[in-house]
Amino acid sequence: MQALRRIPLWLQIVVALILGLCLGFMSKTIGVEAKILGDAFIHMIKMTIVPLIFPLIILGIAQIKSTGSLGRLSLKAILYFEIVTTLIIVMSLLLANTVHLGVGADLSGGNIKALEGIDANKIDFREFILHIIPSNIFVAFSEGNILGIVYFGIFFGLALRALKEKAKPIEDVLEALSKVMFKVLNYVIKFSPIGVFGSIAYSMATYGFGKLSTLIDLILVTYAGLGIVLLIIFPIIARIYRIQYWDLLNEIKDLLLIAFTTRSSESVFAPLTTRLEDYGAKNSIVSFVLPLGYSFNLDGGMVYMAPAILFLANAYDIHLSVLDQIHIVLLLMLLTKGVASVPSGVIVVLTSVSVVIGLPMEGIALLMAVDFIMDMARTATNVVGNALATVVIAKSEGMFHKKEVVIANEEKVSSS
User: Fold this and answer.
1) Is 156 exposed, middle or buried (CB count within 10 Å of its CB: 0-12, 13-18, 19+)?
2) Is the pTM of this model over 0.85?
3) φ, ψ at 208 (rounded to 5°)
4) What are the φ and ψ backbone dihedral angles of 43, each rounded to 5 degrees?
């Protein structure tokens, strides 16, 4: 055990990834059963997210100077998310059109049973708005309703600030709770190699690479689009705000590996919060913007959706005019803002748009066979996008001061 502790966490994850691939390839039966390890790890992460976000958002609001500053910060964050995600949707659609994605593809063999339980009507904007305003905060806690918790936390934080010294005992309790939860997350993160092993073994045993040749063009375009976002769009945004983008990536590189292999951005929420504060963003900004980003700023998912729809349309020889594609962009701009609160959100959005433009459901069922390959990169890109967004907002508010922190990544995970 002592020797194991000396191995860096990122190396443990890489080894777990390789072992999971080998197990899933050699034994589908055992690989499928290994899913419980991945699910257990994700459940452990989810059990800590709500009791961590709740005190963080309240303390963040309590530390913001004025109500006017809070309103400006909210508007700035939402506007940034909308502009960047729209830019990414348009870029990915142009990329897909340039390579004539899906033309001549053979999509026979899609099993529509894979879509059972996926309801294209689950995205209802009336319900989405009401979902943000919880009728019972304890129900919001039990359901993991992040937006509802953020909404309630804003009012709680404003009340704390209004009461000043009278509310100091509650503020101290929340501060202690957040520190305890960071420590709990520290324990949970140590299990990430086991979770990675189970998740990868299950994915390999269940999906394998049988449909890879049919969908290789979509996979390549998705990864190319993610590369453009990570290597061109994000660096340009960072340059505009004078952010050292590559230093930021270096600060969170091991967290990206965890997000990539577990396909869960929630698994790195807590350590990402600490890293961004260590990097120089003020606690009040991180505590407010990062939870919002997890709900509204899915940059990686935006890269995938438009090409996936165009791929299916071309494969089924359904012509989409320029106006049709503009319609798709507008639909994605709207639908994806509610996707974080919907189970199987990406698939639900694809299904919803496909119903509108008349695409066969069998095609979406086929995409699910290799979705895990793209989902890993999408998730890691979401993490980078939210880290950058948080630093951008902090910079724009004058609440960012670069810190020179010389700590090994493994030590920083432990301190999280």
Assistant:
1) buried
2) no
3) 55, -150
4) -65, -40
Query: Angle at CA 187, nearest 5°, toward 48 and 254?
Result: 90
What secondary structure does DSSP assign to 309-322, as a single string?
Answer: HHHHHHHTT----H
Give the pair of three-digit tokens for residue 196.
Answer: 């990675």
By the 8 A CB rule, do 367 and 252 touch?
no
Cβ of 277: how many Cβ atoms within 10 Å?
Answer: 18
Angle between helices 67-98 and 322-335 (to 10 degrees): 140
Alpha-helical runs (H) found in 190-244? 192-206, 212-228, 234-240
Cβ contacts of 73 within 8 Å, gap of 6 or more: 64, 285, 288, 289, 393, 397
Say if residue 366's pLDDT is above 90. Answer: no
Nearest one of 74, 68, 59 to 292, comparing CA atoms: 74
CB 206 within 8 A of CB 32: yes
CA 255 to chain centre: 12
Q: Which has the closest alpha carbon to 103: 311, 339, 379?
A: 311
Q: Does residue 410 contact residue 295 with C-beta atoms inside 8 Å?
A: no
Per-residue pLDDT tens over the stretch 102-145: 887 766 554 445 445 445 455 555 666 777 788 888 888 887 77
State the CB neighbour count (10 A cutoff) for residue 75. Answer: 10
Q: Give pLDDT tens digits for 290-327.
A: 988 887 888 988 899 889 889 988 888 888 888 888 88
**Residue 281 in 3-state DSSP?**
strand
Q: Among all chains, which residue has been given the structure tokens 């909210």? A: 74
Written as one string, the DSSP assignment of 9-35 is HHHHHHHHHHHHHHHHHH-HHHHHHTH
Whole-angstrom distance, CA of residue 405 vs CA of residue 403:
6
Q: How far apart are the first and last CA of the chain?
A: 21
Amino acid letter at 380?
A: A
Q: Are 206 and 217 in contact (CB under 8 A)?
A: no
Q: What angle do CA 104, 108, 114 make, to 5 degrees?
A: 130
| Beta carbons within 8 Å of 84's beta carbon, 6+ residues apart | 233, 237, 297, 299, 385, 389
Rounded CA-CA distance 165/170 in Å is: 10
What distance in Å separates the CA atoms of residue 332 and residue 349, rounded to the nearest whole number?
Answer: 8
DSSP assigned state of 100: T
